[in-house]
Design brief:
The chain is α+β, with helices and mostly antiparallel strands. It has one domain. Helix content is 35%, strand content 18%. It is built from eight helices and nine strands. The strands form three sheets. Strands 1-4-5-6 form a four-stranded antiparallel sheet. Strands 7-8-9 form a three-stranded antiparallel sheet, covered by helices on one side. A hairpin with a 5-residue loop joins β8 and β9. The longest helix is centred in the N-terminal third of the chain and has 16 residues. The radius of gyration is 17 Å and the shape is globular.
Length: 204
């Protein structure tokens, strides 16, 4: 079984490698198509607040709430109309369009496959936090090509790897295919191959 240190290094390496490839522009995305084409509707600074455990217990939903001082961007608009928000290369996914509760979860990958924290999880964000604290059950995956959101699991990753013979062989040789570190590594490997480009995007 891989050690925690190795898992952390694995995630840090894959995140660093991918972060140089295909950043999404900062801004508010109002639809899947805008995110898919990397064209935000507009750019604005939103205030990020981590929701308390009590708030989540009472009304459910995800970890992150955004607010704006602009009147037209009130709580209802942000909660119901914003599909995703990107700030400083970090993607925040709204759970509501995917029937995953209100407010936002932070993504830990960027590319065709966007892995983000799901409703009710209390993930320590960032590569080190993911390596130490998160399990695969904390995450969901949005495929920009299909628009589908699924739980991050070994079955999901194995199915996505079916057209990548070498990666599939490596994955099948992994001792712990259920760990978040392993699954995130292979998602990032897939992102290096399948990252969307505005001029070359096809739906599956």
């Amino acid at each position: 079984m891989r050690s925690n240190i190795f898992a952390i290094l694995l995630i840090l390496f894959s995140f660093t490698a991918f972060s140089q490839m295909n950043p999404f522009p900062n801004g508010v995305y109002l639809s899947l198509d805008q995110l898919r084409n990397q064209k935000p509707a507009f750019d604005v600074d939103l205030k990020k607040t981590m929701r308390s455990s009590g708030d989540k217990f009472l009304i459910g939903g995800n970890d992150i709430k955004f607010e704006s001082e602009i009147d037209s961007l009130d709580e209802k608009y942000i909660k119901k109309k914003v599909f995703a928000y990107v700030k400083k290369d970090t993607i925040y996914m709204n759970g509501l369009p995917h029937k995953m509760g209100v407010w936002f979860g932070q993504a830990v990958t960027s590319g065709n496959f966007i892995v983000f924290s799901g409703s009710g999880s209390s993930v320590l964000f960032g590569a080190i936090g993911a390596g130490l604290a998160a399990t695969s059950s904390d995450f969901h995956v949005l495929s920009l090509r299909s628009g589908n959101v699924r739980k991050l699991s070994k079955e999901y990753v194995r199915d996505r790897l079916k057209d990548q013979a070498e990666l599939l062989v490596k994955f099948n040789e992994e001792e712990d295919q259920n760990s978040a570190a392993t699954l995130l590594f292979y998602i990032n490997e897939l992102n290096k191959i399948t990252s969307p480009r505005p001029t070359d995007i096809k739906k599956k």
